[in-house]
Fold Probable cation-transporting ATPase F.
Amino acid sequence: MPAARVSSGFATTAHHGLAAHEVVLLLETDPHRGLSGGEAAERLERFGPNVLPPAAGAGLLLRVLRQFHHPLIYVLLVAGAITAALREFADSAVIFGVVLINAAVGFIQESKAEVALAGLREIVHTDAKVVRDGRERTVPSDDLVPGDLVLLEAGDKVPADVRLLREVELRVDESALTGESAPVSKSENVLPDSTPVADRCNMAYSGTLVTAGHAAGVVVATGSETEVGEIHRLVGAAETLATPLTEKLARFSKILTVGILGLAAATFAVGLLRRQDAVETFTAAIALAVGAIPEGLPAAVTITLAIGVARMARRRAVVRRLPAVETLGSTTVICTDKTGTLTENQMTVQLIWTVDAMVEVTGSGYSPVGELCTADGAPVFVDADAALRWSLLAAACCNDAALTHEGGRWDVVGDPTEGALLVVAVKAGLDPPQLVASLPRVAALPFSSERRYMATQHRQDDGYVLLAKGAVERILELCDSQMGADGALRPLDRDAVLAAADRLALRGLRVLATAVRAVDERVEFDDEEAPGSLAFTGLHAMLDPPRAAVTPAVAACHTAGIAVKMITGDHAGTAAAIATQVGLLSGRDEPGSLLTGADLAALDAGELPEAVAGATVFARVSPEQKLRLVQALQSKGDVVAMTGDGVNDAPALRQASIGVAMGRSGTEVAKDAADIVLTDDDFATIEAAVEEGRGVFDNLTKFIAWTLPTNIGEGLVILAAIAFGSALPILPTQILWINMTTAVALGLMLAFEPKEAGIMTRPPRKPGEPLLTHGLLARVLLVSTLLVASAWWLFEWERANGAALPEARTAALNLFVVVETFYLFSCRSLTHSAWRIGVLSNRWIVVGVTAQVIGQLAITYLPAMNAAFATAPISAVTWLRIFVVGAAVSGVVAVDKLVRRARSGGRRSTLDTGTFGH
Ligand code: ATP
């Protein structure tokens, strides 16, 4: 690949070969203040949005041709050609017509499903952090322009091609671009022009993922000018609609096709041996092949899945990988984060504990209106209590969040925990912007879920001060003294602090400790730990209320036989209290229902699965341990949905049967690893997605249960006719008519079937369970047999009573369709009677049946159709017979259901037993 790249209209340049200041000059930007808002808008106009053009995908012609690439279609084309050669032009026209209609329907359905899926990907927007006019702001990544100064940090997806200006320990996962899965380290050094893309360590490329560190850089290419845009243009990212299930079904129908073709050939041979008419035997063999192959199956499955994806999106779960729709329905365990998923992630500090005082804080939310007072309401003055003052200073200064006030609403930019600490500092009378000036920060050790604390160093009048805040045990590890109200340092009473923290945690409050130490010199945080010998100053206890929808959603999961486990980095006491509030723990739980990260670390691989299965709450767990948890559960055969938001959650999200990322608070790395993304971060949405997943599976089962008897029935009718050497009760073209019209007008409507009531009161489907359970298979065979027997009988009866062949065949054809229509209603519900779920509850069925009726009247009475399909008008009495037979078949099916239900002890039938309601 040539080193030089055209950068959206700026000079043709290899940006990695230029020094940082040259790149800045070339792109007419400022390395610190970025572009001006006006310039950015002007460039957006000039270069267009930072998006990739829609994938070229397969060309139109190819997509149309693909519709003909199916064994059945080959059979039909050959049949059409032979019938034409035999000068049976009407038959040949019908066969070719059907092939064309089939291709058109397939094409439309496939395009629709593709468009639906492509649209969904856009719901999950990516934001980019840029500096414009000297101010940091967040903009949709679509709005980036060449010359923009972007900021990158761990968890971000690189939004455009960027020449790095400054970086700290930046590591980027470039597998999307280079295929190399190990993250690469970056630096801002100038490189030779000839350096290949994979080695350009001073560039960060669009679509790659930042796994560690942070950086600032200038956008050098956007949209299709980026490296990934180039690849995109070359390859065309065609969206695949395949899932394990569709692939399995496609394989199944291929094997079936070969088997049926073999049977058809054998039939033809037998007919010839018996010296039957060659043309007629051939026609019969074709009819057998055409009738018995369930050609609509793969398309119906894809469409049902696509409809499921759309339904999930409406309930705020965006599916990134189609197989997740199938898997969701069989989820047995949901592992969820606490903060933000079960709770609002709207923190408010309510209490501050110091070794000498307990201070209450009034007010709620992020509005900094409230005050600090004692338990009896007396105001507390911060300047009178040194420990309280230093604790609040740590809260305000060892903090990367910012408070915003827009449109009368207070909000936080950054971590909600830090937002709450800023708010309490303001309530206490501190002024964070002024503190930035009076206590300038000189070094920082950022918060991470592994380290569980954050530390900063600030310059003050007489030297420096170290401030730290974080999980209580971690901060205490760094402390050897505690500060009193008078500012004097005393030896640390660790037990007293831990006891106070436990008391606060048991009330469901999230507790953070603060600490301080004056130092003479600057410290380097390069050993990834803050220096010890800090003085403990206080505890901040904050409320993060559970989300309203969570308690009912947890209860719904329990009724549905799905275990819910909380996995959190928070304190065991806080975790247990929130778990009790949302109904995960009952207060009478077995020992072992709460495990901490330390408990997990002490268990060996053999003990882990049992212990994990028995526990509900996992506290102080590090992201690495999440992976072990998922593996332990999976080793017991569980289908695990796991939530995550951080960079380090990615391995667990990938390992989980369904990785669930948070759309709002999640990093791009987590979203990239996930199968579904929750646009509202709410646990209740996972429950909703599982419900939809079950609905999708039900509808697939319904379609298969409905379609197979037709195919088997049609195949058997022809076989029987040849075996007995009698006239064919239905002709190949008529079979084609039945298959094509009913699959579209009747069968497909099952994909729109609403979820059944009680879908969340039955246990999860067993993983790996076949779609056709024994009960279902028996039902399919019963209906097939009834279909053959009744069609045969009606045909013979009509013939015996003087009907001509076309008339008798028209009667048999209509019988097939009527029985299928009756049976369609029977298949609409797996657990209830069709009448109980309301005949009109799926209006598509009504539309479909109406269309089918019109079609049947047309093929029976329109002279042109009579000529094309060799049908003939039939009398009202014949119709009556058809309906009586159709109703009788439906009655037998109903009785079969009753018997099955009685045998299963009146229990509400489930998919497991394969028994169906009627
Ligand atoms: P969950 O895993 O349910 O989202 P969490 O948000 O509590 O839980 P982490 O963000 O990993 O998990 O936090 C773990 C602990 O680290 C918290 O309990 C808190 O004590 C501490 N902590 C959280 N945020 C910060 C922060 N910004 N600075 C310092 N310490 C923090």
Observations:
- Confidence is low (pLDDT under 50) at residues 1-8, 235-239, 906-918.
- The longest strand covers residues 161-173.
